[in-house]
Design goal:
By secondary structure, this protein is an alpha+beta fold. The protein contains 4 helices and 5 strands; from the N terminus they run βαβααββαβ.
């Protein structure tokens, strides 16, 4: 059985430093879901944030991620499994 590792918390500043958009695997890591599940939800239009398609590439804007995580005020949010609110 694989034991999920828990990453340190990330700040809104660190998320903003990723750029204007992030790829789906990065989004998945930030919100604590698996890469495969994130792609599945993105393709079905079921992610709780907008997904932009550029050819076959899917990207997620950072601003809605910050809003989803409640980080508009530069708070710190836990990342990965067992995350919860920070």
């Amino acid at each position: 059985m694989r034991v999920p590792q828990r990453r340190a918390a990330v700040s809104a500043e660190e998320i903003r430093a990723l750029g204007v958009t992030v790829d789906v695997p990065t989004f998945a890591e930030l919100v604590g879901i698996g890469r495969t599940k994130a792609y599945e939800l993105a393709r079905a239009g079921e992610l709780p944030v907008p997904v932009l398609r550029f050819g076959s590439r899917l990207v997620v804007p950072v601003a809605p991620i910050l809003k989803l995580l409640g980080l508009a005020d530069d708070q710190v949010a836990p990342v990965g499994p067992g995350g919860g609110e920070g």
